[in-house]
């Protein structure tokens, strides 16, 4: 601001003084109220002190109250831990007692079976049960004091060992006698009893003792000695050559003995091929008709059965000795194993001197040598054909000699231990396992992948195919007349095939480490994939057939009878009960009030007990699950159809009857209650009193999820209409 005169300057100064006074006034205004502010702060400080004192007093009271409670909780916790420990000790003691009682029962069963009855199967089964009891229990002091008896005074472990040795010697004697007589049934009977008593080694080695002639593996042994001799030469000279001439010269040294191996090995293979008439045998294998398999895959027609039997080719028309084929397979397995070991040795020598990676393929000269070509032509291709033929022939023979379990009935108790499966399953799966062990022992990836694929095809087409055809055409449990029931023998036979498919689902598993046998490149991975495809394909086919069989068993056998049981159970059941009629337990005895569930339980147990005894646990569980789901839907439909026809007392009786039926079903497994959850909720809603329902609706309002977990609003309204009010 420009000032031009003294008056203007005074005027400006006056304005500044006025602004200064106004500012001082504004600054002094808060200070005038500070007296009240400080007084309030003092009051707060005083309250803070009082509150601290009260907090200290409250804490003292709290500690005084909680200390006894804490001591009590500690005592209770100590007592609970003591009780838990006592409970565990009692449970452990009960387990030991049960095992000792099982041991005593098994020893008594062994002594009894080996006595006058001479029931060798039962004695073997008792020994098998004993093997499941821990060794420390068998040799324990408690068993020593409890188990010995007048019939078996020795310690239990001594009695078991003596019985096992006696049975093993007896089975060997009977096995040799049956083999000498050519009694195939008796041979198979005692051969299967060896693994049950823990004598599998005797069973596997004994049949081969009489086949150890010198010329059986003459050519295979000569080839093995040739390759072993060449490997020794290479091993003894490779170190010297590497030290004096360099590592790169070792490969050249290996190539020279390899040429001699090509010549001598080729001579051995050519002579073996000619002596064993391999070409002729392969031609016979290719032309073998597998008449039984072909006939078994044809639709079952009673009218032409005898006509076909008359046109069957006789066994004399096919001059093919299966035992010679088996011997040929053993020779080829031994030769291929020797060749694989030789290749592995040569490859390791080449990789060692050249510092190559571990998983590289064999050296090029070994892959292109004449002996490799001879092995591929004379061994690998015949091996594939022979393996496939022997397996198909084993499947055919197993079904030819197949016998169903005897003495089974749906109306009377049957002897024996479940599951009851057909003999063919055990025989075929034993052959599969034995054949896979032979194939894997060759160490040849090409052979293993090809033969496992062939085995898979045979299992799918022949094994599963025949079972499917028999289940469909020969023993499908179809009633002869409308409204009737299938014949009992068909039902039992059908259940046997269903159990057989479930056994095939779990039978194949690889039990051998592949990395040690297949060391080249990705061979081990490819072999493992082939075995996995074999198992997956069989399991997929078996599972599909199993599910179809269980569904057919339910539709044709179980459900028609359950429907009849339901009709009988609800006969004369009245739910339109007036208040004047007696219903309470004081007026009506329990048996009368539970007559529906008692009738159902009687019919259900009579129906399912034989099925449960004959079938495997898995197949029966699947069948029971189907029954539970179907029953839940039928009972729910019955509940809806009773809408408006049920009084309040009748609704309670209806819920009681349905709950009794559900309890009977759930005895086979608690999971079987799940399909009935919706039905139970419907009955619970239906039997609620009006005031209770109003209270529930007012508590949860329009939230359906809170009121009912499984019912919609429409279902809830319908459920409220079931009971007439």
Describe what this molecule looks like in 3D.
With 725 residues, the chain is an all-alpha fold. The chain folds into 4 domains: 111-211, no CATH class; 215-290 and 321-395; 401-564; 570-720, Methane Monooxygenase Hydroxylase, Chain G, domain 1. It is 74% helix and 0% strand. It is built from 27 helices and no strands. The longest helix is centred in the first third of the chain and has 108 residues, at 6-113. The radius of gyration is 43 Å and the shape is extended.
Describe this structure in a few short sentences:
The protein has 725 residues and is mostly helical.
Helix proportion of residues, in percent? Answer: over 70%
| Net shape | extended
Strands, count? 0
Structural class determined from secondary elements? mainly alpha
Rg, Cα atoms, Å? 43 Å
Number of domains: 4
Report the span from N to C terminus.
99 Å
Question: How much is the average pLDDT?
Answer: 78
The fraction of residues assigned to DSSP E strands is under 5%
Q: Uncertain runs with pLDDT below 50, 5 residues or more?
A: 207-214, 302-317, 353-357, 583-590
Largest sheet: none
Count of DSSP H/I helices: 27
Order of helices and strands: HHHHHHHHHHHHHHHHHHHHHHHHHHH
Subcellular location: Golgi apparatus membrane
Membrane topology: Peripheral membrane protein
Domain COG4 transport protein middle alpha-helical bundle: 160-472
GO biological process, one term: protein transport
């Amino acid at each position: 601001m420009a000032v031009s005169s003294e008056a203007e300057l005074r005027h400006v100064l006056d304005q500044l003084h006025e602004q200064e006074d106004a500012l001082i006034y504004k600054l002094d205004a808060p200070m005038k109220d500070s007296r009240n502010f400080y007084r309030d702060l003092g009051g707060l400080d005083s309250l803070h002190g009082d509150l601290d004192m009260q907090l200290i007093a409250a804490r003292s009271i709290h500690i005084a109250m909680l200390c006894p409670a804490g001591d009590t909780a500690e005592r209770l916790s100590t007592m609970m831990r003591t009780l838990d420990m006592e409970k565990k000790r009692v449970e452990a003691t009960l387990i030991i007692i049960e095992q000792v009682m099982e041991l005593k029962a098994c020893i008594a069963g062994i002594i009894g079976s080996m006595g006058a009855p001479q029931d060798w199967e039962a004695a073997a089964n008792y020994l098998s049960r004993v093997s499941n009891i821990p060794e420390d229990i068998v040799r324990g002091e408690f068993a020593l004091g409890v188990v010995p008896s007048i019939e078996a005074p020795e310690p239990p472990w001594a009695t078991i060992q003596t019985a096992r040795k006696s049975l093993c010697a007896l089975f060997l004697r009977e096995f040799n006698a049956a083999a000498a007589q050519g009694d195939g049934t008796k041979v198979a009977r005692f051969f299967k009893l060896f693994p049950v008593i823990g004598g599998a080694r005797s069973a596997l080695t004994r049949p081969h003792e009489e086949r150890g002639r010198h010329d059986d593996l003459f050519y295979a042994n000569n080839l093995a000695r040739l390759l072993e001799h060449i490997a020794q030469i290479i091993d003894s000279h490779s170190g010297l050559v590497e030290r004096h001439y360099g590592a790169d010269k070792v490969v050249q040294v290996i190539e020279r003995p390899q040429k001699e191996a090509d010549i001598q090995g080729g001579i051995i293979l050519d002579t073996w091929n000619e002596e064993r008439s391999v070409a002729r045998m392969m031609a016979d294998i290719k032309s073998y008709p597998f008449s039984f398999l072909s006939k078994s895959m044809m639709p079952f027609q009673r009218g032409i059965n005898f006509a076909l039997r008359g046109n069957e080719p006789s066994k004399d028309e096919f001059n093919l000795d299966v035992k010679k084929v088996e011997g040929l397979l053993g020779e080829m397995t031994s030769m291929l194993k020797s060749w694989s070991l030789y290749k592995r040795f040569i490859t390791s020598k080449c990789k060692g001197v050249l510092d190559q990676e571990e998983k590289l393929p064999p050296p090029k000269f070994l892959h292109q040598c004449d002996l490799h070509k001879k092995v591929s032509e004379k061994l690998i291709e015949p091996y594939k054909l022979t393996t496939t033929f022997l397996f198909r022939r084993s499947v055919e023979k197993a079904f030819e000699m197949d016998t169903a379990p005897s003495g089974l009935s749906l109306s009377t108790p049957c002897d024996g231990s479940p599951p009851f499966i057909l003999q063919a399953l055990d025989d075929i799966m034993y052959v599969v396992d034995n054949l896979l062990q032979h194939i894997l022992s060759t160490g040849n990836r090409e052979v293993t992948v090809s033969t496992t694929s062939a085995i898979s095809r045979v299992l799918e087409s022949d094994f599963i195919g025949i079972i499917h055809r028999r289940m469909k055409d020969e023993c499908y449990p179809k009633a002869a007349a409308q409204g009737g029931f299938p014949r009992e023998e068909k039902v039992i036979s059908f259940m046997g095939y269903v159990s057989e498919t479930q056994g095939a689902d779990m039978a194949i598993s690889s039990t051998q480490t592949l990395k040690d046998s297949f060391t080249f490149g990705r061979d081990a991975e490819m072999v493992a994939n082939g075995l996995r495809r074999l198992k997956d394909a069989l399991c997929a086919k078996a599972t599909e057939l199993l599910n179809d069989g269980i569904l057919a068993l339910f539709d044709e056998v179980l459900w028609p009878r359950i429907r009849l049981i339901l009709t009988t159970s609800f006969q004369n059941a009245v739910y339109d009960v007036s208040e004047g009629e007696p219903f309470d337990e004081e007026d009506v005895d329990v048996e009368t009030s539970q007559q529906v569930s008692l009738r159902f339980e009687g019919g259900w147990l009579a129906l399912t007990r034989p099925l449960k005894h004959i079938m495997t646990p898995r197949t029966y569980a699947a069948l029971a699950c189907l029954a539970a789901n179907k029953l839940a839907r039928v009972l729910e439909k019955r509940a809806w159809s009773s809408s408006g026809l049920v009084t309040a007392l009748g609704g309670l009786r209806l819920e009681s009857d349905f709950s009794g039926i559900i309890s009977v079903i759930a005895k086979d497994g608690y999971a079987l209650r799940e399909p009935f959850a919706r039905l139970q909720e419907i009955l619970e809603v239906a039997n609620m009193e009006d005031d209770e329902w109003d209270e529930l609706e007012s508590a949860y309002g329009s939230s359906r999820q809170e009121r009912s977990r499984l019912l919609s609003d429409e279902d809830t309204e319908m459920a409220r209409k079931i009971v007439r009010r």
